Amino acid sequence: MESLENVAEDALLPGSTKILEELKKRNIKIAVASNSKNAKPIIEKVHIGKYFDTIVDGYDIKNNKPHPEPFLLAAQRLGLDPKYCLVVEDAIAGIEAANAAGMPSLGIGEKEYLPNAVVIIKDLSKITADELLQLS
């Protein structure tokens, strides 16, 4: 396991910062919903905290993904109906949690590992903000 001290911006998926910047410019609400208790320190370490309206982490929830609680809490904090939220996820438990929350999901990775995602792409450099918004 990598130490938090060694986490750097190059740990972000390709295209992540560009998409976050574009969504923020459009005043789209953005949240992180993570099981990890290290989510906030990692987000600050890679300098992307300014993009998020709320961060749900392991300290905020009782039930980890694949339970929908992390995503439902994020939607609640954003003041949004879950059906209008799009989950971007790279783990099967996250896709299952999105489905259980009634949220459409964009899987990052390979179809064989994320069979229940609505759409799957290799990384965020493969999608535009307009295409992303059409999924929600």
Question: Strands, helices and their partners?
Answer:
Layout: H1 16-25, E1 31-33, H2 39-45, E2 54-56, H3 69-78, E3 87-89, H4 92-101, E4 105-108, E5 119-121, H5 129-135
Parallel strand pairs: 1-2, 3-4, 4-5
The domain tally reads: 1
Question: Which percent band covers the strand fraction?
Answer: 5-15%
The run of helices and strands is HEHEHEHEEH
Number of strands: 5
| Secondary structure: helix percent | 25-40%
Structural overview:
- The chain has 136 residues and is an alpha/beta fold.
- The chain has one domain (4-135): HAD superfamily/HAD-like (Rossmann fold), CATH 3.40.50.1000.
- It is built from 5 helices and 5 strands, in the order αβαβαβαββα.
- The chain has helices spanning 16-25, 39-45, 69-78, 92-101, 129-135, and strands spanning 31-33, 54-56, 87-89, 105-108, 119-121.
- Strands 3-4-5 form a 3-stranded parallel beta sheet, covered by helices on one side. A two-stranded parallel ribbon has the order 1-2.
- Helix 2 (39-45) links the parallel strand 1 and strand 2.
- The longest helix is centred in the first third of the chain and has 10 residues, at 16-25.
- It is globular.
- The protein starts with 15 loop residues before the first helix and ends with a helix.
- The mean pLDDT is 92.
